[in-house]
Amino acid sequence: MDMEQILQVLVQLIQVLGPLMGGGGGTGSFGS
């Protein structure tokens, strides 16, 4: 896997788990 693919997967996981964990994803689009 390339770094770009890994980063994309991590971003997707954060966007999915962020709201479930109380918006603590830190992506900026999900809560604070």
What does this structure look like?
This protein is an all-alpha fold and 32 residues long. Helix content is 56%, strand content 0%. It has one helix spanning 3-20. The longest helix is centred in the middle third of the chain and has 18 residues, at 3-20. The N and C termini lie far apart (31 Å).
Structure summary, number of beta strands: 0
Largest sheet geometry: none
Q: In angstroms, what separates the terminal alpha carbons? A: 31 Å
Using the CA coordinates, give the radius of gyration.
10 Å
Label the overall shape.
rod-shaped
- Structural class from helices and strands? mainly alpha
Query: Roughly what fraction of the amino acids lie in strands?
Result: under 5%
Spell out the helices and strands N to C: H
| Total helical elements | 1
Helix fraction by DSSP (H/I, runs of at least 4): 55-70%
Unreliable stretches: none
Query: What is the averaged pLDDT score?
Result: 73
